[in-house]
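[09:14] KT: can someone run the structure on this one? pasting the chain below
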Amino acid sequence: MDDSAFADTPTSRCAYYRRTCGIPAAIHPENGHIVVRSGMIGGITMPARLGQQVRDNLLHNRFALGPVIAHVRSGRWTYLIRPDLPDDIRLFAELFRLDVSVVPIGGDIALPSPADAHAVYRQWVVAPRDSFRPSGLLIVETIRACVARKAWP
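[09:31] RB: done, structure tokens below
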């Protein structure tokens, strides 16, 4: 019998995220969710449909995919990124018009947890395997490419 499913706890999952994936995850003391505070890691959140197009575009152009989280109930995806985006109000306004947001520095990014397995809150679209995260600039350029192809309203 495979006991690994029984051994997966929020604490063990946090340890995996920290040690193997370089994600400084922690368990939020108030709600028990596994979170990472934006800073060393950034996040770009978008509607799932656009997220799928971004993923497909990255794969088509042979870019490596980093971790991507599906927020199932809200129908949104979050790409974990290297936080290399400029602090530019025009960029944020451009993304806002596309229903895309950048997680602000210090903001919490909720990560999939063993407790989410049955509740279906968050799931990995692309699970982290190591410390690789794509450039935020690459994700923004890919969003722009998808929009320019009229693949997004």
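[09:33] KT: thanks! Residues 4-148 form one domain.
[09:34] RB: yep, looked fine to me
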